[in-house]
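Final report, Chapter 2: Outcomes

The project's central promise was a pipeline that accepts a single protein chain and returns its three-dimensional structure in a standardized token representation, suitable for archiving and comparison. That pipeline is now operational. To close this chapter, we reproduce one record exactly as it appears in the project archive, with the input sequence first and the structure output second.
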Amino acid sequence: MTEPVANPTELPADLEDGTVLAFLNEVAGGRKLLGRLRELIDAGAGSIALAAPQNQPVAGQIVDVGEVRDAALSRVEVTQEILDEFGLNSVASIFDPSPALAFDDAVRAFAPVYVLFSSLPEARFGLARKDLIEWARSRTDVPVEHVAVRIEDDAIRWDVTHTLVVATQTVNTPELVDQLIKLHRERPHRYTFIAPASGEISREEVCDRLASTMAALYRVEADATGQPMGSSEPFAAVRNAIEHYRVDDILVSTFAGRESKWISEGLIDRIEEITDIPVTHFEAGAGSRGESAGAIPVGAAGEGGEA
């Protein structure tokens, strides 16, 4: 069994131009994962491979097999595009829905010299609820380092605000990105993005937009993760995210000056019925009526426009 990495800041001496495998279990991106990959490449690793099991993401109710596969594709594609933004090339693939089988297959496929296992802090599998990280370490002779997306220390860092951002078509608008950076500079933030179904925008386009926004946040040292949600209904995706993540507040973003299906169907009211967490409606862009962008009080007159 491979021993756990004693000090994650230490770099192995035997990378030898080999491949670093980043295994994405139910998560995408993450500033800590990006930083660790950059360190390993600088220390001598030659390439990066991304892998994800075709399993259910924690944020969002997806039951269709095709949608689960698309969710896995989104995780690797968003992460791959973020790495590309920072000059790190990578290859990517998706594997069996079982995280355990997927890990074995990924190790065989990429023959890594080092593994970064990116997941929630409590990563378990099977009827016996085995610790997935310890299991992974027992399956390979190379080091396996756990990159926890929800770093446990944050639970006692009350100076960090965890904001759930609900945005699809507006997710990369300059106004929303500027607002998120502004909030982070006023008080450290960690952002979790969910991008539910909205109009005719494709999964690939949502991945592009989300990756761009997350990269912009990483540049100001704000951590962020995200997941395009395919055809998931917005309210179900929000409800599920609240159950699985620490969330201090929620920001719902739509276009200013357009009729918003999310707003007209009462998304914000429905969210407020199930939680006491503060909810902000942010309007991005001037829209057709020339309205200014910005956060507006919930319940105020006016329509935003997520399709």
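Archive annotation: The domain at 153-296 is CATH 3.40.50.620 (Rossmann fold).
This record, like all others produced under the grant, will remain available to the consortium after the project formally closes.
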